[in-house]
Predict the structure.
Amino acid sequence: MNLIKRTLADQSGNAAVIVTIAFVVLLGFVALAVDGGLLYVEYTRISRAADAAALAGAQELPDNLKAQARAVEYLQKNDVDTAVPGSLTISFAPDNREITVEIRKSVQLYFARVLGFNASDVSGRAVARISPVSRVSGLLPLGIDESLLPLSAGHQYIIKVGAPNTGWTGIIEYPGQSGKDDYKEAAANGYDGIVGIGETQGKAPGNATGPTIEGILERINGINETWVDYSPDSPRVVLIPVYRNLGDLPTDGLEIVGFVSVFLEKVVGHGLENEVYVRYVNHTISAETDDTITDSYLNSVKLIE
């Protein structure tokens, strides 16, 4: 009888041990499911915030100070606490054309605390780079002579349009343009063909002056913005080429040597005597690129990591 009691007691003790072990294992699975899911959600949020910050910061390159400020701004918009020591690292490549954003956050755990794990770190990393634009569409039929280089952001430049004493209107003739409507359309909505660096374009005749100015005024009129507070999709922010004049004659061509984004401020003049006032603004777009191009004033930005 005593042997039976001892046997039952031993079995009860073994069962308690087994139940305890099973409970710990079950708790581990719960911790893995709940806390693991929590870590995954936070990792996804942090990674997306890093992507957004890197892309936003890259648009200010090669100005590192502005790029860092813009990246921090976007992190804060995505509810990332940038004030926690050691939680944020922003670095730049030696050529100032690449920004890296690294975020680290300590996430408090719940069920895993029973197993001795109170918190776990998650991290996100993104690298964005700007590359010189080599081919682009949407250009206005105006440009900036390379003699004005280097350009300074915010500086005002004057493009003369229609001055007959120069032998050229100052208007660019892209392939397929011939009638007045073509020039007005290109000025109002951008040339729909693709233009590349190294290509030669023509010089438009005098009858293109009026339609071109009309198209530019369509962009300016009714849009109450300035070059310091324009919206990203403002019709007053336009793309124009930088060209090399291959000769003084109207039949001599223009070699495209670069591209630039400008803000259309105003048009002064009338008839065949007009001046278009623009300011260079640092603006990035999505277009074909070529990293061998130097001294680019128009860049495309993309995530590379």
